[in-house]
Design a protein that fits this description.
This protein has helices at about 10-25, 30-40, 55-80, 80-115. Helix content is about 75%, strand content about 0%. The protein has 4 helices and no strands. By secondary structure, it is mainly alpha-helical. About 5% of the residues are buried.
Amino acid sequence: MEQFKDQPSIPHSIGQDEITAAFREVFSTASGKRVLFWLLEQCAIYGEAYAGELVNATHYTLGRQGVGRRLIAELDRIDPTLYPRLLLAIADLKANDRAAAASRAADEEGEDYDSDV
């Protein structure tokens, strides 16, 4: 009987496999990576929880961070490299966004200059 203690039930295993596949699918696209990172930002993972004498605000933020840590733990369970790769991918996406914005701004300046001639 001891051998069955550590084995997940069949419904749990199937559900876990579906969640794993869904995370991998979401992580495979740039949009999915943006959404995952946005969710982590909403969980206040990258902020300070302490709100001074506002104990309820501190507890609220700690709760949000707990959800974020669960999300990171799920990423780690699926693949220990997912979260670090997410951070690198987001840095690249933000750099590309800044470059595209700078390019658009330069194009708009050029259009304004040409229209004045």
